[in-house]
Amino acid sequence: MAKKSGILYAISLKFSSFAIHLKSCIVKRTEIKYLLEQTDFGKDVNVKGWVRTKRASKNVAFIALNDGSTIKNMQLVVEMNPETEKILEHIHTGAALSVDGVLNESLGSGQKVEVHAKNIEVLGEANPEEYPLQPKKHSLEFLREKAHLRYRTNTFSAIARVRHAMIFAVHKFFNDRNFYNIHTPIITGSDAEGAGEMFQVTTLNLENIPKTETGKVDFKNDFFGKPANLTVSGQLEGELAALALSKIYTFGPTFRAENSNTTRHLAEFWMIEPEMAFYDLNDNMDLAEEMLKYVIRYALDNCMDDLQFLSKRQQEEDKNKKADERSPELVEKLQAVLTEPFVRLTYSEAIRILMNSKPNKKKRFQYVIEGWGADLQSEHERYLVEKHFKRPVILTDYPAGIKAFYMKQNEDGKTVRAMDVLFPQIGEIIGGSQREESYDKLYARIKELGIPESSMWWYLETRKFGSVPHSGFGLGFERLILFLTGMTNIRDVIPFPRTPQNLEF
Ligand code: ATP
Ligand code: MN
Fold first, then answer.
1. Do the Cβ atoms of 380 and 365 come closer than 8 Å?
2. Is there a smaller number of Cβ atoms within 10 Å at the N or the C end of the chain?
3. Is the pTM of this model over 0.85?
4. For residue 13, is pLDDT > 90?
5. Does residue 478's CB lie within 6 angstroms of at least one atom of ligand 1?
6. Residue 96: CB atoms within 10 Å
7. 150-197+232-342+391-492 belongs to which CATH class?
8. For atom 31 of ligand 1, which residue has the closest CA?
């Protein structure tokens, strides 16, 4: 391959004047995003990127070049002559080019500027017989199998840019509000977080597992001398930090070995978990709503080109769907979330609404709600948000039995101060609660659930020494990106999805 590109260097398009050649060579590359904004036509420029399309006619060829700095391509104009014809034979969709040329005003529609190529160097060819991405629509399923190349499509580069902007916005939101970012551990010795099935971490030889006298796995010989897992949440450690620093947040990888093959679950995903001392459930809800609105506004202010592309993509996708199955227009959907306060109501009120709803009465829900205590499925959450209230909803005060052990127990002895934020198209995007700050109540709950005290002693101690009311929540980052991009499968909003039976790339 290296040899081949060597030859290409030799046949790269030469300038008629050596002087200009020298001058052009020292022109530094400008990223397409910035070049598209420039108006000093006639100046020498250099662009580098990957070919999206090539159109050749008798006198001129047009190449659309993309370098990932923006969804927009730079149009290259190449005059046809025997030399350029030769080099154009090596240029196909996917090839990488470095192009020296002159910035010109574009007369064509669709772009303001273009580059008249004077010297084209093919940095890397892409054989059209082998390169899987062609300038046509590929299915998302096909692109998942080509995840090593799917960044090179408009859809996946747009998602990557939005994802980046949201990472930045999340950190900015918290930094501006005096929250400290905490790195909580990825390998954990406690399996009591109760948030889901865990992945075990071990260096034991699986072909020859050491056993104790009673036939159990002897973890004394394992790396940590005890069972270890990948974390399902950074919350418990986050609480330790909040009970000293007041306001902290984590933003880290999270692992759940749930064998749930849904469009909303990954085995490896990223979670943002703020934890605040002296916050009650209302403060917690206020923060969650403020944060979601902040990052959505940030996307609207900073990612409009990508959002508009994704909106068109979604409308194309929806063309063949029935009217009531089509998604709302993406940008309008995002703006709508900003305009009104989220609905806040209790789980008990939500159950009443759901019991009286048409789909429940007519048994059109997959899981019909039989009464108080039922765990809500995403179909119920989406009914409340999309059909009943038509805006985001925060449900509070869930039955203790369907929520985690650390949530603050209500006076009624039945419910806990939990809150789930429910979003259109997504269902649960945030799960959180006020935490139980009373040592006695927390201890009793741990005993009741049979959680070994030996793995929780450090957590319990925070309730012994300077315990204060505190609250926090977890935002699933990929669920946020699903909402922002209008994508419908969570496998498409993380670069390299990990799901059951799927560990490629
Ligand atoms: P769900 O009921 O949707 O499975 P959960 O109640 O198990 O979620 P929590 O433990 O409350 O989830 O986690 C907090 C947030 O993390 C959720 O609101 C969701 O946004 C996200 N999340 C949870 N599990 C996953 C997963 N497997 N893949 C991606 N995001 C997830
Ligand atoms: Mn939850």
1. yes
2. N
3. yes
4. no
5. yes
6. 18
7. alpha beta
8. 476
Three-state helix/strand/coil letters over 451-489:
CCHHHCHHHHHCCCCCCCCEEEEEEEHHHHHHHHHCCCC
Question: Helices (DSSP H) in 303-400: which residue ranges?
Answer: 304-318, 330-339, 347-355, 358-361, 378-382
Check residue 150 and report its DSSP letter: G
Is the CB–ligand 1 distance for residue 309 below 6 Å? no
Instruction: Return the structure tokens found at 195.
Output: 């948030």
**Looking at the CA of 380, which ligand is closest?**
1
Listed in sequence order, the DSSP H helices in 91-226 are 140-145, 154-176
Question: What's the gap in Å between 51 CA and the centre of ligand 2?
Answer: 44
Where in the chain is CATH 2.40.50.140?
Answer: 3-124
User: What are 333-380's pLDDT values in tens digits?
Assistant: 999 999 999 999 999 999 999 999 999 999 999 999 999 999 999 999
Hey, what are 342's tokens? 């989220």
Mean pLDDT of the residues in the chain = 93
Structure tokens at 190: 């406690």
Strand 74-79, strand 113-124: pairing: parallel
Within 127-207, residue ranges assigned H as helices are: 140-145, 154-176
Q: What element of type H or E holds 25?
A: helix 18-25
Q: How far is the CA of 251 from the centre of ligand 1 (A)?
A: 14
Q: Is 271 helix (H, G, I), strand (E, B) or coil?
A: strand
Count of positions (residues) in the chain: 505
CATH of 3-124, one of 3.40.50.300, 3.40.50.2300, 2.40.30.170, 2.40.50.140: 2.40.50.140
Round to whole Å and give the CA distance between 164 and 321: 31
Which tokens hold the place of 288?
């969650």
Task: State the residue for tokens 């796995």.
Answer: 217
